[in-house]
Amino acid sequence: MPAAKVMLNLGALPPKQNATDMKKDGQNYPRTPSRTNPNAPPWPAYRGYHEYSFAHATMSVRLPTILGKGIADVHQTLNQESDEERITDLVACIHRMEDLMDDLTENSKLRPIIDDGAGDIPLWNKEIAKYFQGKDFMNAPWLFAEAYKYRRLRECFSLSKHWVEYDVFFRQKCDTFSRSATAVFELASRFAQPFKHADGLNDDEKLAANKLIFRELTQVCLWGNSTDLSLLIDMSEEDIKKLQSTGGEHLAATEKNILGNHLENLTNYVTSMKGGRIDFVLDNAGFELYCDFVYADWLIQSGICDQIVFHGKRLPWFVSDVTRKDWDWLLNSCVYGYLFSEASEADMDQLRLMGRRWKQYEKEGKWRYEQHPFWCTGYTFWDLHSEAPDVFLDLHKSDLVIFKGDLNHRKLTYDCHVPYATSFAEAIGPMASQPGAPRVCSLRTIKSDVVCGLPKDVGEKLDEEEAGWKISGKYAVILLSEGRPDEKVVFQ
Ligand code: F6P
Ligand code: MG
């Protein structure tokens, strides 16, 4: 059952601001890195009470709706349980979710996370105590408030005895993948057979062929990010099909929607690599992860990489994000599953062939799945170097770190009112400027307010001509920062 309460009491909030005020304010920005903190980003933060922003729509309507759907999912699980101890334990989880719903809809102050023994508690509570004392869901920066809500959702289960790992979004994630047959088999039919160049090509021709394949696969991997369950609640099979068109014609038509586009430089760099390491900071499970796998598979088979490291989430996060369970589920479903009742035996064989190859990469250590707690905190990646130095040091060893999706982009850019034409390297701050910063690429379909790296006037023109262009998922960016990979990492 959907949530009953989705209205907010906005009585105690600061006065409304509009987009023009924010632009005027912008003259005092960016703040220097030493004056930047999670409550004071380099440019003004988006906050839930900014009524013109997607932050407002998310905090006041989307999050309560998502939570209501989560409660409905737990009801369904409860109805299928027979053991009394497990049932009463789950009832307590539901009560905690209802309390969270009250806090959200009544715009309560952000309290510390209850210590459930998890390793991320110090990171969370340090940040709350230092920057968000007395702040509530609507006046804390949107990015933090939204992440906090997902950590509180985890707390509803982590305090239980039997349901600590329960994922209220797992059913939806599996279901959407099983309704993605058309695009799944379209890709399988092209990439299942082991990759090899046509006979008789010389080295230049092979390089040219690699460039073409890489360009196309990068776009498959990019647009795979469109199927985001947090935005598209109750998608029809037809909607899914439209979002997942992976054919060449479709890709050519959508390339013009890539507003900030470093694909050329990215292609030249990646296709010059041999036996390197690429990291993916993953976004969504199911179809998007499947596209990431197809991409990573080709990077291994072409000899460009001999190692791919995938970074997933430790907790159910922003509805669709990949957890270890989603990762295992997808690999095993490709090999053993019966998800696609209408698929032919030949189609299924191709899917199994790919699935087996991918599992083999994992066994051989060519593919590695990591899930550091930092990825599920409210910190942006401006603080990766200081709050998770081990991750920074590890990423420094990579030849390229690809950040997938909208949320990762928000975290790279501090989710603030950065002017559209600001360069990507400037917008990601220390992730580009710290000694030892790796090469970073963002593959993002634009689904929320923060946008940078655009040619002059492009964003302003879209503001005038196309309302909602920043949340439609129709536009995208492929942005690259060269970083300072040849320098030694320094920690103060
Ligand atoms: O709730 C808003 C949001 O965080 C946006 O960043 C985006 O609309 C969505 O949720 C997540 O998108 P993605 O899965 O691409 O990070
Ligand atoms: Mg996501």
UniProtKB/TrEMBL annotation:
> Its GO CC terms?
nucleus
Ranges of biased composition (kind: Polar residues): 29-38
EC numbers, comma separated: 3.1.3.-
Record has DNA repair as a keyword? no
Molecular-function GO term, any one: phosphatase activity
Keywords annotated in UniProt:
Hydrolase, Manganese, Metal-binding
Quote the catalytic activity from the record.
beta-D-fructose 6-phosphate = dihydroxyacetone + D-glyceraldehyde 3-phosphate; beta-D-fructose 1-phosphate + H2O = D-fructose + phosphate
Residue ranges of every copy of the Damage-control phosphatase ARMT1-like metal-binding domain listed in the record: 58-462
Cofactor(s) annotated in UniProt: Mn(2+); Ni(2+)
BP GO terms, sorted = DNA damage response; intracellular phosphate ion homeostasis
Q: Which InterPro entries match?
A: ARMT-1-like_metal-bd_sf, ARMT1, ARMT1-like_metal-bd
**Sequence segments annotated as region (Disordered):** 11-42
Which domain of life does the protein's organism represent?
A: Eukaryota
Report the function annotation for this chain.
Metal-dependent phosphatase that shows phosphatase activity against several substrates, including fructose-1-phosphate and fructose-6-phosphate. Its preference for fructose-1-phosphate, a strong glycating agent that causes DNA damage rather than a canonical yeast metabolite, suggests a damage-control function in hexose phosphate metabolism.
Describe the family membership recorded for this protein in Swiss-Prot or TrEMBL: Belongs to the damage-control phosphatase family. Sugar phosphate phosphatase III subfamily.
Domain comment, as recorded: Subfamily III proteins have a conserved RTxK motif about 40-50 residues from the C-terminus; the threonine may be replaced by serine or cysteine.
Q: Name the chain's protein.
A: Sugar phosphate phosphatase
